[in-house]
Design a protein that fits this description.
By secondary structure, the chain is α+β, with helices and mostly antiparallel strands. The chain has a single domain (31-276), classed as Lipoprotein localisation LolA/LolB/LppX (outer membrane lipoprotein receptor (LolB), chain A). It has five helices and 13 strands. The protein has helices at 2-27, 31-46, 126-129, 140-143, 148-151, and strands at 48-59, 65-76, 82-90, 98-103, 110-115, 120-123, 152-164, 167-178, 188-194, 200-206, 212-224, 227-237, 242-252. The longest helix is centred in the N-terminal third of the chain and has 26 residues, at 2-27. It is globular.
Length: 280
C-alpha cells in the first residue's frame, strides 16, 4: 500500500510539474508578451547609434504619385530618452526640413518640425501628431519613436503563415486594443508577428467606427548585423485607395557616437547634413 501511495504521489508530482511547465510556457506566449518581444527586437536593431537612408513612394487616391528620400540619425541608449532626427533630402522643395523625435522611457514622444523656409522650429501638439507625415499614409506619430506595447494590449488569437516572396513565415496573430489613455491613430488592430524574427510582417488598423482603414505588409526582408530586418513594406489606406511604399536603402553605424546636442530642438537650424553624408 505504501509503495502504491508512493507511486501515486510521484505521478501526481510529475503531473503537477508538467502542468506548471506548460503554464509557464503558455505564459511566455501571451499576446502582451509577444508584443513586448516585437518592441525588444526593434530595440536591438535600432539600439546604439544608427544612420539610415529611407525612401517613401506615395500613390494618392487620384492616381498621382510623389516620393521622398530621407536621411535618419537615431540614438537609443539605456537610461536615456530614445532620439531620432530625420532630414528631408529629396525632392528639392522640401530639402532641409527636419523632423525630431524625443521619447522618454514610459512617456509619449515629443515631436518637432523645422521648416528652413520659415526658419522656424515648431513642437507638434497632439492633433498635429496625427497628421500625415510628408503626404504618406503614416502620421508623424507613426514615424516618431514609439513602442507598440506602450499603447496597446494584445490578445493571442491564433497562428497563420504570411508569404513574402516565395517563402512562407509562421506567425502569431494578435488582436490589439488601445490602452485607455493611449493617444493613437487607430483604437484596434491585428498584427501577424513572425515566430522566427519577432517582426510584424502584416497588420490591419481599424478606425473609431470599427472599419478597416489601413493595411501593412512586408514585401522584402534583409539582414543587418545578423538580424532579420524589413527592407521594403507597403501601407495602404483601403478607404481612399492611397498607399506608401517604404524602402530602407541603407543602414550603418557611425564611426563615432552621434552627439547628444544634435537632438536639441534649439540646434536644428544649425544641422549640417554634409557631416552625416546626407548632402555633398
Amino acid at each position: 500500500m505504501k509503495r502504491v501511495s508512493l507511486i501515486l504521489g510521484l505521478v501526481f508530482l510529475l503531473g503537477a510539474l508538467l502542468m506548471a511547465a506548460v503554464s509557464y510556457s503558455n505564459g511566455q506566449l501571451t499576446g502582451d508578451g509577444i508584443l513586448q518581444k516585437v518592441d525588444d527586437q526593434q530595440d536591438v536593431v535600432m539600439g546604439g547609434n544608427l544612420i539610415s537612408t529611407i525612401r517613401f513612394d506615395n500613390v494618392y487616391s487620384d492616381g498621382t504619385t510623389a516620393y521622398n528620400i530621407f536621411g535618419s540619425l537615431s540614438k537609443k541608449v539605456e537610461g536615456q530618452p530614445d532620439r531620432s532626427l530625420i532630414y528631408f533630402k529629396e525632392p528639392a522643395d522640401v530639402e532641409g526640413t527636419l523632423f525630431l523625435s524625443i521619447k522618454p522611457q514610459g512617456e509619449d514622444a515629443r515631436l518637432w518640425l523645422y521648416l528652413p523656409a520659415l526658419g522656424q522650429v515648431k513642437e507638434l501638439v497632439s492633433k498635429e501628431k496625427h497628421k500625415s507625415f510628408a503626404g504618406s499614409t503614416f502620421s508623424y506619430r507613426d514615424v516618431g519613436n514609439r513602442r507598440i506595447s506602450d499603447d496597446y494590449t494584445a490578445k493571442l488569437a491564433g497562428e497563420e503563415t504570411v508569404k513574402i516572396g516565395d517563402k512562407s513565415y509562421p506567425c502569431y496573430v494578435l488582436e490589439l486594443t488601445a490602452k485607455p489613455k493611449a493617444d493613437v491613430d487607430y483604437p484596434t488592430g491585428k498584427s501577424w508577428v513572425g515566430k522566427e524574427n519577432w517582426l510584424t510582417l502584416k497588420s490591419e488598423d481599424y478606425n473609431k467606427e470599427g472599419n478597416l482603414e489601413r493595411t501593412m505588409e512586408v514585401l522584402k526582408l534583409g539582414e543587418f548585423e545578423d538580424h532579420v530586418v524589413m527592407n521594403k513594406l507597403i501601407a495602404k489606406n483601403v478607404i481612399d485607395n492611397s498607399s506608401t511604399t517604404i524602402s530602407f536603402l541603407k543602414r550603418e553605424r557611425p564611426a563615432k557616437p552621434i552627439p547628444d546636442d544634435l537632438f536639441d530642438p534649439a540646434n536644428l537650424p544649425n544641422f549640417d547634413p554634409a557631416a552625416w553624408g546626407f548632402k555633398e
